[in-house]
Write a structure and sequence with these properties.
By secondary structure, this protein is α/β, with parallel strands linked by helices. Helices cover 45% and strands 17% of the residues. It is built from 15 helices and 14 strands. It has an 8-stranded parallel β-sheet with strand order 12-11-10-9-8-7-14-13. A 4-stranded antiparallel β-sheet has the order 1-2-4-3, with helices on both faces. Helix 6 (156-169) packs across helix 7, helix 7 (190-206) packs parallel to helix 8 and helix 14 runs parallel beside helix 15.
Length: 390
């Protein structure tokens, strides 16, 4: 079972996903209270108990009209004041068993909706205070098939020059990647990925004049182990710990922050933003099970991954709702197809479109932006911060 916080902006679409009639939707919206949660994977046997206890505790509940899914599970939307929802959770927990688990799930979701992101991000000896200014993560892909640079940094000399250039231009973190993850790209072995990234990582860590922390962009435990073991201070997993079951344990052992990105192999969603939130919650739970604390978790909505053009735009619009998960948000839109399709421009002409998404992302709550054009996006961030983070 999962419970996902539903904001005022999401309430209409959440009701649509339950296949309600227009009259039922109007009735709910007219009584809508700001504390609403969508329940997913709700066992059919819980319906009468939840319905009865909700009525007793003055909480509104409405069940999906589409009927149970395979396995007898369904969805519901519950809404009430904070006090009444707390009373409902307590009553459910007292029932024990599956009903008690439902109460605990709803209680945890309510707590997450009020949770504030970590105040600091510690990367080795570097410590960043989150919220005062936007952090800039520079992208350094040492791949022969990068969509943005055509493999220009797939040799050590160019890659080192790029790292120092981004440091000079104002990057706070350098994200090193050895495998292209663009749609249609070819998967490579961990051995090949290590051949690409480790010479650069080793050279930067041995150079006393290079001061920035590094992040390793990988979903493979073997690559993460080698990179973190050689001093890399952060792990950025584009599959949110769902591709390699061992990677969470590696990150926990080295006690580094992790970025969990939303990703999936299908663009078929039942309810886009709540589905993204629920799937990010799955990644967060995997991190918790591995021993990673909330203070070490950053989330990424995964713009350009597992989403079509319209879904990417919709996700951007609802970044504030993703921030309600209570974790720092990293936004990576730099030069992506979302911009290319909107402006009908190739990757090397998307700087203005990237700037627009960065500025919007910051106003929507992003704590970190992951970019190719560090100098220009640093200026965009400074200007946007001057307005929004005074």
């Amino acid at each position: 079972m999962q419970a996902v916080y539903i904001s005022t902006n999401l309430i209409g679409k959440a009701l649509d996903s339950l296949a309600l009639s227009s009259g039922e939707k109007d009735h709910f919206e007219n009584k809508y209270i700001s504390n609403s949660f969508k329940l997913r994977g709700l066992p059919g046997l819980a319906i009468p108990v939840l319905s009865g206890l909700a009525e007793l505790n003055k909480v509104q509940v409405i069940f999906a009209k589409t009927g149970p899914r395979p396995g007898g599970e369904t969805e519901a939307l519950v809404s009430g004041s904070e006090t009444d929802l707390n009373s409902l959770c307590s009553a459910l927990i007292k029932q024990g068993g599956t009903i008690g688990t439902l109460g605990e799930t709803l209680q945890q979701a309510a707590g997450r909706a009020k949770q504030k992101p970590a105040a600091k991000l510690k990367l080795g000896s570097a410590e960043f205070e989150l919220g005062k200014r936007t952090l800039i993560m520079g992208i350094l892909n040492v791949t022969p098939d990068s969509f943005s640079d055509g493999g220009r940094f797939n040799n050590l000399e160019n890659a080192l020059a790029c790292a120092f250039k981004m440091a000079e231009e104002g990057a706070d973190i350098i994200d090193v990647g050895g495998e292209s993850t663009r749609p249609g790209s070819k998967q490579i072995t961990a051995e090949e990925e290590l051949k690409r990234v480790m010479p650069l990582i080793s050279a930067l860590k041995k150079d006393s004049t290079f001061k920035l922390p590094l992040s390793i962009d990988t979903y493979k435990a073997e690559v993460a182990e080698k990179a973190l073991g050689n001093g890399v201070e952060m792990l950025n997993d584009v599959w949110g710990f769902k591709e390699d079951s061992n990677i969470g344990g590696v990150a926990s052992r080295y006690n580094v922050p992790v970025c969990l990105m939303h990703n999936r192999r299908s663009t078929e969603y039942r309810d886009l933003v709540p589905d993204i939130i629920a799937e990010l919650q799955d990644s967060i739970e995997l991190a918790h099970r591995a021993g990673i604390t909330d203070q070490q978790i950053v989330i990424d909505p995964g713009i350009g991954f597992g989403k079509n053009y319209e879904q990417n735009l919709e996700t951007m619009l609802h970044l504030p709702d993703l921030c309600r998960l209570g974790y720092p948000l990293l936004l990576g839109t730099s030069r992506k197809s979302l911009i290319g399709k909107t402006l009908e421009l190739p990757a090397d002409e998307r700087i203005e479109g990237t700037a627009a998404t960065v500025a919007y992302g910051i106003t929507a709550g992003a704590a970190i932006v992951r970019v190719h054009d560090v100098r220009q996006m640093k200026r965009v961030a400074l200007m946007t911060d001057a307005i929004t983070r005074r």
